[in-house]
What we know:
heterodimer, A: alpha+beta, CATH 2.40.50.140, CATH 2.40.50, five-stranded mixed β-barrel, 3 helices, 18% helix, B: alpha+beta, Rieske Iron-sulfur Protein, 2 domains
Amino acid sequence: MQEEEFYIGWLAKAPPSFARRTRQFILVSVLSLPLVIGCLVYFQQGFSNGVFEYGKQTSLIGKFSPTPAPFLILESANQTNGRLTPQSILLVGVGKHGYFADPKEIPAGSKVRVDGFLIYREGKVALQVKSIAVLEKDSSVNYTPFASVLNAAPIRLQGEITDPKCFLGVMNPGEGKPHQDCAVRCLAGGIPPLLKVHDGDGKDAYYLLFGPNGAPLFPQIQQYVGSGIGLCGRIQTFDNWQMLYVDTTSIQRINKYALDAGPMCH
Amino acid sequence: MALSYDPVHWTPHKRLYDRILIAFIGVYLLCFIGLQSIFHPDCTLETTVIRATGTLGFFMLHLILIIGPLCRLDRRFLPLLYNRRHFGVAMFLVALSHGVFNLFQFHAMGNVDPMVSLFTSNTQYGSLARFPFQALGFFALLILFLMAATSHDFWMKNLGPRVWKSLHMGVYFAYALLVMHVMLGVIQLEKSPVLIGMVGLGMFVVIGLHVAAAIKQSKIDAASERNIAIEAGQAVPEGFVYACEWAEIANNKAKMLLIGKENIALFRYEDKISAVHNVCKHQNGPLSEGRIIDGCITCPWHGYQYLPENGQSPPPFTEKLSTYDVFVKGTSVYVHPSPYPEGTQRIPAEISMVS
C-alpha cells in the first residue's frame, strides 16, 4: 500500500499532493483578483469632477465680504489659470476650518489680495486661503455685496447636508455616510454647511445654509449631516451662489431623494 | 520547533510563503489603483488608497478565515496554515494603513483631536442605519492589533495555548465588526447590488466552509466517542475502555478517541500502541491527524514533536503531553481514560501480529 503523504512545514519540501493543492489555492486566489478588483472598481457609483488645486497657488484681488460667510468679491467674472472664475469666491481655511478675519484688520469691503488654492466644481468656486494682504481698507460701515432681495416667501427644500470645501473638490466623494464625520468636523471648524438638493432630473442645486439671521447653523444640524433632510428657509441669490436662511424648527430627517414635498413652510 | 525566540524562525516554506504574500499584496494594490485611475480618473488619490487598502484587507481576512476550515476538509491545504500568522500580520498592516489614512483624511486638521473626532463626530449610536461605522472599524483594528502583536511564539508560550487560542478566536468578532463597518459605511453610499452581493458572497463562503468543517469534525468526534458505561470490558483491568481493534490503526498513524472529557490520540508504531493527549501544546493542533516520524509523534499543523511513550518533546525541547495507559487483549485495544501528569513515562502496549 502506498504511504499516505504527510506535510511538515519545517522540512525543505512539501509532498507533491500538498504542494499541488497549495498551488491550486494560490492560483484561484490570484485568478480571482482581476474579477474581484474589476467588480470593486467598476461598480462604484462614480466621482464628481471637482478639483482642488493643492500646490498650485492662485492670487486674486477683490473685495472682502465677511458675512454671512467670508467671500472674495471680484470686480467681475474673469479668466484665471485659463478658466472662468465667477465673481464670488467662498474663502475657507486650512484643513477642516473656515476662514476667519479680524474685522479690525480686514474690514468688510476692503480691497485685498488673496493667495491660495482654488477648489471648484460645477461653477462654484472656493479658495483655501494661504495668505491675505489688505491693499485698501474700506471705511464704509455697511458693505453689502449680497444686494439681491431676500425672497419674501420661505420655500421647502430637501437634500443632504455636507460641507462645501470637501464637496467642491478637496475630497471625492465629499458627501454621503463615509464622508459624514469629515463634514461634521469641517462644519464644526466654521465652514458654512452646504445643502445638496437633487431635483429628480439628474441636476443638483446647492445652497449655503445659515440661521434665520445669518448666524452659523452648527451645532444644531450636526445630527443631520450626511443623511437626507427637509427644511424651510428663505433664499438669497448672489452671482452663482444661493444662500438659504433656515427656519431651524423646520428641519426634519427624510429620505434624501423622497419626492414627497413635505409639510408647507410658514 | 525552536528553543529560542527568534523574531522569525525562517524556513524555506516561510520564505516562499512571504514572497507570494508580498507579491499578492503588491499586485492587488497596483491593479486596484491602475483600474481606478482608468475607470474613475476623477477619484482623488487619497480615496483610491483608502478603498484599495480597505478592500484588500477585507479580502485577505476572508482568505485567512477560510484556511482553517479548508484544512479541516482537506489536509492538503495545510501548507497554507503553516505560516498563516504572517498572513494575519500582513493583513493587519494593510488594515492599519487603511485606518491611518481614514483617520487623517476624515478626522485630522479639525478643531478636536482626531481620536476624539472619531467617536464624537457622529453620535448616533442608537440608530442602526446612521450608526458611527468608523468606530466599528476602529475596534476591529484594535482586535487585529492584539492578535498581530501576540502572534509570536513568545506570547503563545507565556499566555498558554488555551488563552492564546481564545484570544485569537477574536478574529471572528473582528470579522463581524468589519462586515458591519462595510455595510453601515461605504455600502450606504455605494449601493450597487454587485458590491452588496460580494459582501454577502464572502460571508456565505466563510460561514459555509466553517459549517462544512464543523459537520465533518462532528462526524469524526461521533465515531471517536466511547461510552464508558456500556463498553467497559469485563475481561480487562478495571477502568479500561474499549477503543478499537488494533488493525484499525495504520502503522505510524493514530486514532482519535473521545472518552468522557478526555481527547486521546492512540498511536500505533513498531508493533506497539501508546496513548497521549490529542491536543498539541503549540497551537492546539489535532495530534491524532499527525504521524510517527523518526520515532516521534509529529503534529500536522506545525510539526511539533513528542515521544509517544512519555509525551515529552525530544530534548532539548520541553513541551509535554499527558499520557494514558493502554491495554491490548487479543486484537482489541483498551485505554484507561485517566490522564497521567504531563510527561509521565508509560509502557506501550505490545501487539501480537499472530492472533
